[in-house]
Amino acid sequence: MASISIxxxxxxxxxxxxxxxxxxxxxxxxxxxxIGPKCTLCGSCVESCKFGAIEFIRxxxxxxxxxxxxxxxxxxxxxYGKLKxxxxxxxxKAEELAAELNTHVTAVILGSxxxxxxxxxVAYGADEVMIMDAPWLKDFNDHIYGEAMxxxxxxxxxxIVLIGATSNGRSLAPHISSALRTGLTADCTILExxxxxxxLLQTRPAFGxxxxxxxxxxxxRPQMATVRPKVFxxxxxxxxxxxxxxxxxxxSPVEGFVKKIRDIDNDDGLNLADADIIVSVGRGIGSxxxxxxxxxxxxxxxxxxxxxxxVVDSGWMPYSQQVGQTGxxxxxxxxxxxxxxxxxxxxxxxxxxxxxxxxxNDPDAPIFKVANYKxxxxxxxxxxxxxxxxxxxx
Length: 394
Ligand SMILES: Cc1cc2nc3c(=O)[nH]c(=O)nc-3n(C[C@H](O)[C@H](O)[C@H](O)COP(=O)(O)OP(=O)(O)OC[C@H]3O[C@@H](n4cnc5c(N)ncnc54)[C@H](O)[C@@H]3O)c2cc1C
Ligand code: SF4
Ligand code: SF4
What we know:
The chain has 394 residues and is of the alpha/beta class. It has three domains: 3-57, Alpha-Beta Plaits; 66-247, Rossmann fold; 267-393, Rossmann fold, CATH 3.40.50.1220. It has eleven helices and 21 strands. The protein has helices spanning 16-20, 85-101, 117-123, 142-156, 167-180, 270-274, 291-301, 309-313, 344-347, 367-370, 379-393; strands at 3-6, 26-29, 32-35, 54-57, 72-75, 78-79, 82-83, 105-111, 128-133, 160-164, 184-188, 190-194, 199-206, 211-215, 223-227, 244-247, 277-281, 304-307, 334-338, 355-360, 373-376. A hairpin with a 4-residue loop joins strand 12 and strand 13 (199-206). The chain is globular, with a radius of gyration of 24 Å. The protein binds flavin-adenine dinucleotide and iron/sulfur cluster (2 copies). One iron/sulfur cluster binds next to loops.
């Protein structure tokens, strides 16, 4: 375990370190810095002290042989024999990262009767596809899938594992990382390579989206990251591409902790992720009974309905429809923000959108700074007018 302490004799009480601690863990007592229990041992304050008064001892005792790890793996999540788009998005990114590291990309797919999927994975960037095919892998179960993945990771030692931040991916990834005592960065928005150190630079919003943090995992392998759907673009598939397809031994079935009671096919709010047009509702809609106004516009446009977080927190819409930092990342062609102020945490969920239309009764609402079309007025009056016009035009 690493440790941190103040060398009292060296501390002059200049307070410099206090402002650098993101966790508010340092205070001044009797003109000397004191580190309190909020300290997470992040190490950020060390450089700030010009007097060498902060002593930070990293734990060098656990050194792993990192050279044994090679290759980038993508967990190729599928459901009902159909790949999740995020798996294909990750393969494209993995190919770029692999070129930097001069290594290969492996897609790992678990399921039952998964037929032509391996070919698709090769077309989208996998050099190799490892398949575990068994009847008891038909449905996702984090314990069973987690144990099967662990088996493979321990045996073949990838240096990087990328997993889509779907609801299944979010429970699978920590199952693996905690068992291997390695690092996992959730919801990365940028993935890059430090070639010299062979490190995956995992960037994600931090501190409520107010800054971007780049996280590395220098001492353990594999380096693990989850990425939300639509953050990266799929590359153009090349169905002439050749790759190795290997059927792996399947470990005998283990009892899962989770028992499936019924299947509900609204996993990950696919409508939102796939929609070309999203009509999204914010607190400005006033109440749940007005949401039908946005739904009618979405229906007229053949789009999906999204929302900001307060709408979900109020119970007006399900979490699966929330857009933003703690909701979904979406990339429609047209995004219509109805009574949404445009907080940074909401905008964090808008990736690569061609046209943003904003309706807001406050002409100074921040959403107008990112909107291509700005409508100032009461959303409850404007939505029916827009729906009417769209229907007429049709
Ligand atoms: C860690 C963290 C994570 C978060 N994650 C998310 C997230 O994933 N997604 C998300 O959305 N938010 C998220 N938030 C919350 C975010 O900070 C904002 O509070 C939220 O986005 C505001 O939602 P809103 O725009 O609907 O509401 P408000 O900010 O209250 O804005 C309502 C808007 O409607 C307008 N309005 C009011 N009445 C009308 C009317 N009659 N006609 C037209 N316009 C009207 C107002 O002018 C205002 O601009 C997060 C916050 C934190 C701290
Ligand atoms: S920056 Fe260094 S000298 Fe200044 S208060 Fe902090 S520990 Fe003491
Ligand atoms: S190590 Fe990090 S958390 Fe601890 S006092 Fe320094 S800056 Fe704060």
